[in-house]
Amino acid sequence: MKAHDTAESLLIYRIARCRLVSPPGQIEGVFSSDAMQPISASMPGWRGVVTLGERQLGVVDGVELLGLSSGAPGTYLLVLAGLPLAVLVDSVEGVVERDALQSCALPAWLASSTAAAGLKRMWRLPDGGLCYELHWDASRAALWAQRWEARI
Amino acid sequence: MSVAFDAAGSSTEGRLLLFSLRQEWYAVELGRVAGIELVGQITPVPGAPETVLGVQDMRGQLLAVIDSARLLGLPPLEHGRHVVVLAQPDAGIGLLVGRAEDIVSCDLTTGLEPVSEGNDWVKARLQYGEHLVGLIDVPAVVRKLTSS
């Protein structure tokens, strides 16, 4: 399935108890975690590998990438655009138009923590729930991508 | 439920809000408390210190909810009922506690026994009935959290 149909739509998904949205261009596609194949036990931290055409992508748990303490086993794979990675997430909830999001402000002293994790800002969704806007290219995914490329 | 306090008023001088954490009791000066909220849905904050459970929406403002038990060196609090909102508007900090128990008046100069050793965040103790209550050094907690 294509992650985004229009330039204005953000994908909503969940990792552990965090709801996240990512802008167009950050996510190449969404797959079931059934597409994941086991990976060598000699590569700790990696959850598996997924093959897309001639590309092999390393699978990382979103909980690990965001530095969250715990989460349910992921059931979907987000293929990150421009990185050789797929991220396990708990669920994919749909899309939301950016215009439908309301801005929220984290306490300033927490903002630096979230920025380091690639979380640009916080929004309130139309259902009233809170979500983070996650830019994967500014997250720890870049480091994991380097690790994945180094193994080849 | 939401209870607001007038932190600027002189009527709060020498009054303490007592709360329980598991089997232990602690207190904060009422003048440093903006209010008490029921704990709500807490959204984790990736990358935040371990004591930060997440943020809770408080009528449109986000409140960082701190696990008071973990802050005080106790096992993490699994079932807190109340969030004690600190009177630090810019910091947006709430302490998750087991339950807010009571508000008492106390002579802050003679009714407290200073604590020089042990937990960094407990600056004095007082006896309240059968409970030995630790008075939390709120400014020190806020400084620690907001500089981490």
The CA-CA distance between the termini of chain A, in Å, is 28 Å
> What percentage of amino acids of chain A are in beta strands?
35-45%
Helical run tally of chain A: 3
**Strand order in space, largest sheet of chain B:** 1-4-7-8-6-5
Q: How many DSSP H or I helices of chain B?
A: 2
Helix content of chain A: 10-25%
- The count of β-strands of chain A is 11
State the shape of chain A: globular
Q: What share of residues of chain B is helical?
A: under 10%
Please tell me about this protein's structure.
With 152 residues, chain A is of the alpha+beta class. Chain A is built from three helices and eleven strands, in the order E-E-E-E-E-H-E-E-E-E-H-E-E-H. Chain A has helices spanning 62-66, 108-116, 141-150, and strands spanning 9-15, 18-22, 27-32, 48-52, 55-61, 76-80, 85-89, 91-97, 102-104, 119-124, 130-134. Chain A has a six-stranded mixed sheet with strand order 8-1-2-11-10-9. A five-stranded mixed sheet of chain A has the order 3-6-7-5-4.
Short description:
Chain A has 152 residues and is α+β, with helices and mostly antiparallel strands. Chain A contains three helices and eleven strands.
Name its key features:
heterodimer, A: 152 residues, alpha+beta, 6-stranded mixed beta sheet, 5-stranded mixed beta sheet, 3 helices, 40% strand, globular, B: 148 residues, mainly beta, 9% helix
Write the layout of secondary structure elements.
The complex is a heterodimer of chains A (152) and B (148).
Chain A: E1 9-15, E2 18-22, E3 27-32, E4 48-52, E5 55-61, H1 62-66, E6 76-80, E7 85-89, E8 91-97, E9 102-104, H2 108-116, E10 119-124, E11 130-134, H3 141-150
Parallel strand pairs in A: 2-11, 5-7
Antiparallel strand pairs in A: 1-2, 1-8, 3-6, 4-5, 6-7, 9-10, 10-11
Chain B: E1 2-4, E2 15-21, E3 24-29, E4 33-38, E5 52-58, E6 61-67, H1 68-71, E7 82-86, E8 93-97, E9 99-105, E10 113-114, E11 122-128, E12 131-136, H2 138-147
Parallel strand pairs in B: 3-12, 6-8
Antiparallel strand pairs in B: 1-4, 2-3, 2-9, 4-7, 5-6, 7-8, 10-11, 11-12
